[in-house]
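thought: fold this chain, then report.
action: predict
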Amino acid sequence: MSAKRKGSVRTSIVTSEPPEITDEWIAGADLYRGEKLVRRGRPKLQHPRRLLSLRLPPEVIAKWKATGPGWQTRMAEVLEKSTPKSRRSSG
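observation:
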């Protein structure tokens, strides 16, 4: 998706001079607690989702999409609730 979104706003100001780098700016670049660097941003998930390629009839996909935003999450919840019980091997 290379097209620019309609609602996007420029986040940087175009100037001919770079901003001044101060001690305060450098101190705020990384956060340390003692000797440990604290990572910022979204924490890692314990059970991240995995990518799966699945072929479904177009009608099924259209009906799920028609339910609105979050349809993939709702589909995953339905699939999770209907997971088959494990089969015992007959041997």
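thought: worth noting. The helical segments are 23-27, 58-65, 71-81.
final: tokens above.
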